[in-house]
Amino acid sequence: MAHVVVSEFMNEDALAPLQDKYSVLFDPTLVDDRPRLLRELAEAEGIIVRNRTQVDEEMLAAAPKLRAVGRLGVGLDNIDLDACAAHGVAVHPATGANALAVAEYVVASLLMLFRGAYQANSRMLAGSWPRADLQGRESTGKLLALVGLGGIARLVAERAAALGMHVAAFDPFLPDDDPAWSGVDRRETIEELLTGADAVSVHVPLTDGTRHILDADSLSLLAEGAVVVNTARGGIVDDAALATSIRSGHLGGAALDVFEEEPLTAAGAEIFVGLDNVILTPHIAGLTAESNSRVSDVTVANVLQTLTS
């Protein structure tokens, strides 16, 4: 049996330091075979996961020797932190390792949504020349609202400001004197943040307090034609209300990388059918060749440190 189990994909080359000291089972298909995963964990001291493997009481009971959970990313929704603490299992997110990839995804999405010219392939290939229909908007001068001002949001703010956008944020947990507020207008309430904003990007975890924080009422505060980007967690944005607002013409579009139910099913995506100004991607905002390498290296180093201490 393996000392360390990897149940989802990562940069396999990064496992070398672990393989020098421990037996490692690298099998990204394990996430889809829960019974086999639990069996493979019988002797494991460490497990490396992404966001789909559920690290819960059932898993911890099946892995009595487990000492470390390495998370290939930063979100911990799939990990029962209280249960891990009770079992003495250390949890290591790869904090900051994919932040740049997410920030670039957000900015690229904003530019695509404002311009609105990048989904004309089918019409062009059909011999159409829809030039009059594709007059988009520039990002310069637009007001970007950031829900949360953590590490990723700060990178987004820097890049948006470089494009000439005005940036505001709502983050009640960030002190007034934090350097992150430099160049970012502070808003005291979510309503104040959203009112009149041309774009909003979400950068908070999913909690009872943030679930559907962008609902029909709050989305109605955005400026006519505003766009929404969610790379944080599904459920923070009320996707049904978002789709309704886009169909009504109030909002100008959205880019969604996360969903309340993942993987997104055909039934779940039904609300977006026919909306050409919606970009849907499969939770890959933080995944680039470079970030995958960084995340893998950081995660392996974290797990190795716990196992050798």
What features would you describe in this structure?
This protein is 31% helix and 16% strand. Helix 5 (99-115) packs across helix 7 (151-162). The two termini are 22 Å apart. It has eleven helices and twelve strands. It has helices at residues 16-19, 34-40, 57-62, 81-86, 99-115, 121-125, 151-162, 190-194, 216-219, 239-248, 289-308, and strands spanning 4-6, 24-26, 46-49, 68-71, 90-93, 143-147, 166-170, 185-186, 199-202, 226-230, 251-256, 278-280. The relative contact order is 0.14. The protein is of the alpha/beta class and 309 residues long. It has two domains: 4-97 and 290-308, Rossmann fold, CATH 3.40.50; 99-280, NAD(P)-binding Rossmann-like Domain (Rossmann fold). The model has no long low-confidence stretch (mean pLDDT 97).
List strands and helices in order, with pairings.
Layout: E1 4-6, H1 16-19, E2 24-26, H2 34-40, E3 46-49, H3 57-62, E4 68-71, H4 81-86, E5 90-93, H5 99-115, H6 121-125, E6 143-147, H7 151-162, E7 166-170, E8 185-186, H8 190-194, E9 199-202, H9 216-219, E10 226-230, H10 239-248, E11 251-256, E12 278-280, H11 289-308
Parallel strand pairs: 1-2, 1-3, 3-4, 4-5, 6-7, 6-9, 7-8, 9-10, 10-11, 11-12
Helix pairs in contact: 5-7
